[in-house]
Amino acid sequence: MADQSIAGAAGTMAKASDGDRSGRARIVILLLCLGLALAVLLSLTSGASDASAISVVHGWLFGAAPGNEALDARDRLIVYDIRLPRVILGVLIGASLAVSGAVMQGLFRNPLADPGLIGVSAGSSLGAVAVIVLGATVLAPFTSALGTLALPLAAFCGGLATTLVLYQVATRHGQTSVATMLLAGIALAALAMALTGILIFMADDRQLRDLTFWQLGSLAGATWQKIGSVGPIIVLALAAMPFLARGLNALALGEATAGHLGIPVQRLKYTAIVGVSAAVGASVAVSGGIGFVGIVVPHLLRLAIGPDNRYLLPASALLGACLLLLADAVARTIVAPAELPIGIVTAIAGAPFFLWILLRKRGVVDL
Amino acid sequence: MIEARDVSVAIGGKRIVANVDFDMRPGEVAAIVGPNGSGKTTFLKALSGDLAYSGEVIINGRDLSTLKPVEAATVRAVLPQATTLSFPFTVREIVRLGLVGGRSGVLPGEDERLPERALARVDLDGFAGRFYQELSGGEQQRVQLARVLCQVWAPVLDGKPRYLFLDEPVSSLDIKHQLIIMGIARDFARRGGGVVAILHDLNLTAMYADRIFVMHRGRLAANGSPQDVLSDDLIEKVFDCRLKVGALPPGNMPFVLPQSAA
User: Fold this and answer.
1) Which of the residues A98, B88, B177, B240 has the least number of beta carbons within 10 Å of its own beta carbon?
2) Is the ipTM of this complex over 0.90?
């Protein structure tokens, strides 16, 4: 009898939280915070040089070890001016790409939407390349007026234009056709790349070198100045995203139903599109095309904590930042002292993962 | 009170609904019946504010076109025909979405328990932890109804009636659950709310509806009590098939017996 009542009580307790994954989501977010701290530490201490962040922190706290001042000064330079901006940039861009992916997937009601796959990054690239190649001539008034903001702003406009066209083409009566979305994305990306090609054709040798490395995607050029120009944009866009979470959850039921539930759907859609374009545009402007972060990160997290955007968006930011730092660590060390563009690392890891998602979904969800 | 005057809807230049007048009082279950393609769903979408319409729709004395989404969400909840999801939400997560914008009308703090209670009402006790995408069509439909119930849990809020708009709420359900769901609609009306439901089963309609609106080719062919509306002539003409209408004591509730296609 006593056993039965205990079992009964346990049963009701389990029932009260059935299907509620918010507790698990909070734990995962906490773990990701720890993971990010570790990834930051790892990135600060590893690299082609043996400069150690720990000795820098040690020197900073307790003064330089006697007889070691010169070495310490060198280490400090490497850590402060090379690794630290790179780590901060990696965190910002990883978070921005992953959250942008999650928001786009919510907006298009489809787990396969990704800024890189559907041409948004290509549109941003076009904007950025236009500034790099034409900045001194045709676009001179634009670049001189905006200074360091010209590049991210142009990338933002390119991304925004692509997303708006894509949304108009792929959505009819509040339903987004995924086939249309992916195909339209391919068409738009091809168009953007062709226009980019024309610009590259016009570029001189120095611009070409800049462009090639930038297009492959890299955090190598990270400087405090770059962080100053794109950091605020990314931080602002990321800060706006949590306000979209509830609306995006409702949007999972379809646009009409989200409206019935009291969500201002038009405003939600446009905020999401502008926010994603800003975040992706700013990221592309400094680091080129880094693919697959936006699709892999939210997908993994949905498996762990479910699709509730109130948790998915912050968790995506954290995991995106972690993964990009790790990918960058690989990119920096695997062919040291040279370094691999990080876009290659994320593509090699991400593309097979994308295929795996497709295989798993085949026959289960109507793509 | 819902009053619709001279409502017409055109989609892509084609007129789907033409000059429909519709009104209902709180406390009523109003059924909309009619053959496929007669404009029932389109009319309900206009009433829900999903589609542009000409004419006038007044809900509780306010023009529908002036209501903000969150205000509309407070006076009415809408159950669509079917809802598919692309993400693996659990049943509880779906039902809780009913609380996202409007006001359920229960005391603050009790909202957390509503999903459980709503699921129990639609006979889905113990389904909270299941994945929506793995349920059958009929179960999914009942989960959506539980979500809709959460949104307007109290049929009357601040002294004003609230409404359930149900598009074919029982079309994928077995007979037991058809009766349970229609019972929920009846109960919602009894407690002071109003229900507008698109139905195909004329016998179920006769059993549960106070008023029947018959639509035919985008227009209103008849409207009135089941006894008034369910006649051999009208039903045969509208549905284009041979039917016999009888009456069952004690209340002379009409029943419809199909004969054969015309």
Assistant:
1) B240
2) yes
